[in-house]
Amino acid sequence: MQAEDDITGDNGRLLDELTTIVSAAAAAIVTECARSLDARIKADQTPVTAADEVAEAVILDALGKLLPGVCVVSEEATGRACPDRLPDSFVLVDPLDGTREVIAGRDEYTINIAVVLGGRPRLGIVAAPAQGLLWRGIEGRGAERLRLSPGAPASAAQARSAIRTRPAPDTGLVAAVSRSHLDRRTEALLARLPIADRYACGSAVKFCQVAEGSADVYPRLSPTCEWDVAAGHAVLVAAGGLVSTPQGAPLSYGRVAERFRIPAFIAWGDPSAAERLGG
Predict the structure, then answer these.
(1) Is the pTM here over 0.90, yes or no?
(2) Which of 30, 70, 151, 277 places its Cα 20 to 30 Å from the Cα of 129?
(3) Rounded-to-integer distance, Cα 173 and Cα 196, Å
């Protein structure tokens, strides 16, 4: 079977296999967090720990066996050697999203894996190991949240439930905002929207809160990277939401020339609210 067929074929099977890989990485992170994290600052001034590196090693090894020959773009590996070009289909990995949360002892960090086809994330998995939760979805086939103990296979998932975004409430929107990257531009956007409540959170959990209807909008107008966004983007779209630039244009992925940077985005639960309220 060709690598392209592995990604575009039986996505239900692929979703379970990737879920099991994410679970194995979750177990590695939990184990590492019980030891010395060996936290340090990378050249781009972002933190990294031994947990990031162990999780990435687990994921890359497993992906190499599951999808031999498929291009994988992962945060730490890409920081060492950025690919010159990408095929139409590839896998985006953030082995530990929310390293600051890990260092601070919070439970909000995630593992993110997305399958990108034609510049769009079509399948996404976001796991929160410390919470024992995992959100996943496939574009056009729906999204779900499940409880999965770190290290357990996908077949052992419990409390499985379909998730769906909610219509924007007339009483005002609930905004999910970044704990560490809430900048002035984002604050200015929030001031223009009918926000009734907000809460701060680290990592891609914010996408999942919008996807399951506990929040309505997640704006981030400061730069981030594709591996931080793609998996949550896929889950949210599968649940009925959308993610776009502040101007309403689609996000595209695999932008090697920009070193996978995303300047800004807004994630909406209710697409009609995006049309009415804009950026």
Answers:
(1) yes
(2) 70
(3) 5
